[in-house]
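Record type: monomer structure entry
Structure origin: computed from sequence
Chain ID: A
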Amino acid sequence: MRFQCLKLSLLLAIMLSISACGQIIANAKQDFADDLSVTILEFDDPETIKKGLPAYLILMSSMIKGDPENADLLESGAKLYGAYASGFTDSAESKKALAGRAFDYAGRAMCVRDERFCDIKSMSYFEFEILLDSVEKPQAEHLFVFVSSWAGVIEANSSDWNAVAELPKVKAGIQCVLNIDETVSNGNAHLYMAVMESLLPPTLGGKPELAKKHFDRAIEISDGKNQMARVLYAEKYARMLFDRELHDELLNQVINADTGPQDQILINTLAKHRAAELLLDADDYF
């Protein structure tokens, strides 16, 4: 009897040890993903990130494969793939593939956190709206990662009407985030909404004045330190309305600004490069 108890105790100790070891490994993976994200955001040389990041994308996928139910790790992967798809890839096919993987990871993360989100694609718009009504503030950031990744897929597949047809759901998701916590991701939910409201000119039903309010609010929430907000404001709004004065004013503000806080260095460096390009061809556009 004592021997059986000893075996049982030993087995239990081994199981607890394995469980603890697994948690340590899971935590180490997430720590690595977090440190990688911070390092990337603080980098001031986009070209180095463009050349070096693909290896880490593969590494991230490898870590996710080994821990497929880790929602935090899946979200980190979604952010990393989404950022590379939107900011660095030169190929349309690559952009589609990377954006698709970002959305897959973001969707799986939402499904792990809340199983009601596991079958979003097959839901009607009405059903999706009902689901969004139940989202609470702690979920706002996770929802934003999901719907912004979805927006990335639509952008990458803009010639596919089946993809574009999902835009109302994405817009509803972004609006849900804004209703719950507009400060999520440093106000970037406003930026996504502003771009979506700038897709059509007023003559085709667009709402540029609503877009303007969202651009202004995104800049305000970031204390004026998110320079990409100004670049998109100039590119999507000022150019649509052929407002050369506003266009040049916004872009010159970006050029003359510093790179901002540590976690904004990369995005603001990219913004400065894009601002210079837009100013360079402004005479041709206007």
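Annotation 1: The chain has 14 helices and no strands.
Annotation 2: The CA atoms of residues 111 and 162 lie 23 Å apart.
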